[in-house]
Amino acid sequence: MEQITINVPVDAARIIEKLEAAGYEAYVVGGCVRDSILGREPGDWDITTSASPEQVKAIFPRTIDTGIEHGTVTVMDHHVGYEVTTYRVDGRYEDGRHPSSVTFTRNLNEDLLRRDFTINAMAYNPRIGLVDRYDGMGDLRNGCIRCVGVPEERFGEDALRILRALRFASQLGFTIEEQTLAAMRKLAPKLEAVSAERVRVELVKLLGGVHPDLLVTAYETGVTKIILPEWDVMMETEQINPHHIYGVGLHTVKTIEAMHREPEYLAADEHERMVYDMTMLLHDSGKPACRTMDEAGVHHFKGHPKASAEITRQVLRRLKFDNDTTDLVTALVRHHDCRFNMNKHGDTAKSVRHIVSAVGKDRMGYLFPIQHADILGQNPKYLEVSMRSLELLRQEYEKIMQAEQCVSIRELAVDGKDLIALGYAPGPELGETLKQLLQLVLDDPDNNTAAILKRRAKELLEK
Q1: Is residue 182 classed as helix, strand or coil in its secondary structure?
Q2: What digits encode the pLDDT tens for the residues 137-151?
C-alpha cells in the first residue's frame, strides 16, 4: 500500500469510524481520493463500505434512500450529505449504460474492479491508508488515463466512460493509454445509448479543461461522429484564405485555447465559462455550408455567422441546454464576426451604435473576449490590424455606455402609448415605426427627444 495521507473531512471520517465501530469496513473512494492526491479540491466525498444499506441505515439516525437499489444511502451529517455505497459487483449492462442488477459483496477489491479508470479505483481509510489494487498512483504519476481491467469490457458496460476518458484527459492534462484509446475507437458507436444530458455534461467539462484540443482525439476516435457530427464536418473543412492558417476545426480549437487565457474568462463563473466555451466551439460551425471559392482558389464564407447561429441553436437544443443559455450562445455566435461598416454607416461611432443595438448592451461584454480569441486563432500576419479594430470597437462602446446613449427601443424618448396618442393603432405598423425611430437615433443620438421622434412618427403615419 502506498504511504499517502489524505485529509478526510471530519464528518466523513466520523462516518467511517462509526461503520468500523459497528464491525464493518469503510473507505472514502473514487474521485475524492484522486483529487486529494493531485492537490485538487474534491467536490464530493463518497464512502464505500462492507455494510449493507439496511445496516448503514441502522447505524445512522438521518439517511436518505438516494439509490438504495444500487446500494447507495445518503448519510446526513451537519446538514451535509455523504453517499455511502455498499461494496458491489455489477450484473450485465444490457442497455450499455446501467447494470441490470447488482450483487453486494464483502470484498473491497471486487468493488474496485468494477470502476472505470485506475485513477478512480483507489480507496482510502484514515487508519489503514491507501488501497490501490490497480496502480492508480502509477497512472497519476505518469499522467495516464487507463481502464481498470480490460478496456473493451469497461466501455462495453457503460459507453459514457468513453466520454469520461476524454473529459478526464482534458481536465487533468493526461494522455489516454494506448489500449484504452483503441477500445474507445472500437466502441464509439455505443455512445448512441448515452442520453443527451450526459453528453452535454461531459462535453462542457472537456471544453473547460486544460486540453480542449482533446476534441481532435474525439474526432479521430469516431466519438464526435455520434455525439457532435457538426464537429466532424468542421474538422474536414479547409480554409484556403490569407486570414487563416488552419482548417475550420483546428482554428476552432485554437480559439478555445486562446479564450482560456482571456482575463474575462479567468474571472468568470462556471456558467459564464461554459457560455464562452460553447460559443467558441460553434462560432464557425456554419462555415462548411457557406464556403465558396473564387477564381484565384481563395475560400470565402459569406453569411457564415447566421448559418452558424442556426446550427448552434439546433445543437444546444439537441443537447438539452436550457433556453436562456441557448438564446445567449446563439446570439453571440450570430454576432461574433460583427465589424465596422463604414460604407453603410458613415463613421465609426455610428457603426458601433448599430453593432451595440444588434448585440445588446448586456451581451457586448461577452463579445470582446470572443472576438479577441477568434483573432488569435487566425493568421498572425493580420494580428496587429485586427487588434486595432477590436480596440476601437471597445473604446467606442465605452463612450456609448458613459454617455448613456440610446441603442434599444425601450430607451427611446417615446413609446407605444405615445404613438397611439398620435393616431397609430396597436399592431405591426406601430412596432415597425418604433424600429425606424430607433434607426434615426442610432444614426444620431441627438435625435432621441420626444419632439423630434413624434414629428418623425407623424410623417411616417401620413405617408
Answers
A1: helix
A2: 999 999 999 999 999
Q: Is the pLDDT of residue 343 over 50?
A: no
* DSSP annotation string for 300-354: E-TTHHHHHHHHHHHHHHHTT--HHHHHHHHHHHHHTT----HHHHSSHHHHHHH
Tens-digit pLDDT profile for residues 241-266: 999 999 999 999 999 999 999 999 99
d(CA 181, CA 398): 49
State the burial class of residue 95 (Cβ atoms within 10 Å of its Cβ: 0-12, 13-18, 19+): exposed
CATH domain 143-227 topology: Hydrophobic Seed Protein (1.10.110)
The secondary structure of residue 278, as a DSSP letter, is H
Q: Residue 252: name the closest of 178, 333, 353 by CA.
A: 333
pLDDT at 340 over 70: no
pTM of this structure: 0.90
Please give the Cα distance from 30 to 168 (Å, whole number).
13
Q: Look up the CATH superfamily of 10-138.
A: Beta Polymerase, domain 2 (3.30.460.10)
pLDDT for 91 equals 55
Measured CA to CA, the distance from residue 275 to residue 332 in angstroms comes to: 9
Query: How do beta strands 63-67 and 72-77 pair?
Result: antiparallel
The closest alpha carbon to 177, from 98, 118, 220, belongs to 118
| Alpha-carbon span 145 to 135, nearest angstrom | 11
Chain position carrying cell 473491497: 108
CB count in 10 Å sphere of residue 250: 18
In the chain, where the domains are located: 10-138, 143-227, 241-403, 409-462
**Helix (H), strand (E) at residue 53:** helix 53-59
Task: Tell me the angle at which helices 304-318 and 270-282 cross, rounded to the nearest 10 degrees.
Answer: 130
For residue 69, the model assigns a pLDDT of: 81
Class of domain 241-403: mainly alpha
Q: Are 272 and 214 in contact (CB under 8 A)?
A: no
Buried-state track 377-389, b at ≥16 Cβ within 10 A, e below 16: bbbeeeeeebeeb
Q: Scanning the structure block, which residue is given the C-alpha cell 407605444?
A: 416
The enclosing H or E element of 145 equals: strand 144-145
